[in-house]
Write a sequence for this structure.
């Protein structure tokens, strides 16, 4: 299957700083990528849809100024957690689908465990 | 928006027995229903999917059924093995974004 790479896999940052997470589709182009947050023993909560060349679409309750998404190319989307606080500590995971999205298999990155101290 | 409910949240079955996980969805326009398996510390991976024009699909020990009228779909795992222990997520999609259920933690007992 297609490969999605996410970096870094783990990051620890100080409260008030910003952290950038990268999501790359290695062997296919993805017009759309998705960012999820997963709390321990809980489901994947969709945060936003990242659209190449346009603004991201955020789910209700997700602060767009807090979680900045940039999708500058067909193979790269970034999520920046700005002014991070301990409550932002979580597992963040991206996914991408081949082509223009739609009803096809989603391939996930390996996830990023963010710890804010 | 779409809402996906999944039950049970935890399931323990004896090795060799069958496991069934059930999901319901709210948006009748959803037409793609994938199931993902997530092992501890790993990324979710697709194990089987079904589209709205099909009522049942099977792949070796795994099968999925879909009832569009009732808006529910189920995952069936037969002859369970230790490596089936994981968290399973159902999901629903209608064109773009995929909405996941809360997951079922499946334990296979020796």
């Amino acid at each position: 299957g297609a490969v999605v790479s996410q970096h870094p896999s783990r990051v620890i940052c100080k409260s008030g700083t910003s952290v950038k997470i990268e999501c790359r589709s290695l062997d296919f182009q993805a017009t759309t990528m998705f960012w999820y947050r997963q709390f321990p023993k809980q489901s994947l909560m969709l945060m936003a849809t990242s659209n190449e060349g346009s603004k991201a679409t955020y789910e209700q309750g997700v602060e767009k100024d807090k979680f900045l998404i940039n999708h500058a190319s067909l193979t790269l989307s970034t999520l920046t957690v700005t002014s991070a606080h301990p409550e932002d500590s979580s597992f963040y995971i991206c996914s991408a689908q081949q082509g223009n999205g739609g009803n096809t298999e989603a391939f996930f990155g390996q996830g990023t465990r963010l710890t804010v101290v | 928006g779409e809402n996906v409910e999944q039950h049970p949240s935890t399931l323990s079955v004896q090795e060799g027995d069958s496991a069934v996980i059930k999901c319901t969805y709210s948006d009748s326009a959803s037409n793609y229903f994938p199931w993902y398996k997530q092992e501890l510390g790993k990324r979710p991976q697709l194990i089987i999917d079904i589209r709205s024009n099909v009522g049942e699909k099977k792949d070796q020990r795994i099968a999925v059924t879909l009832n569009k009228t009732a808006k529910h779909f189920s995952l069936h795992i037969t002859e369970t093995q230790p490596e089936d222990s994981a968290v399973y997520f159902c999901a629903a999609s209608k064109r773009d974004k995929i909405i996941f259920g809360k997951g079922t933690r499946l334990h296979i007992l020796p």
Summary: The radius of gyration of chain A is 13 Å. Residues 13 and 22 of chain A are 16 Å apart (CA to CA). Chain A touches chain B through 22 residues (CB under 8 Å).
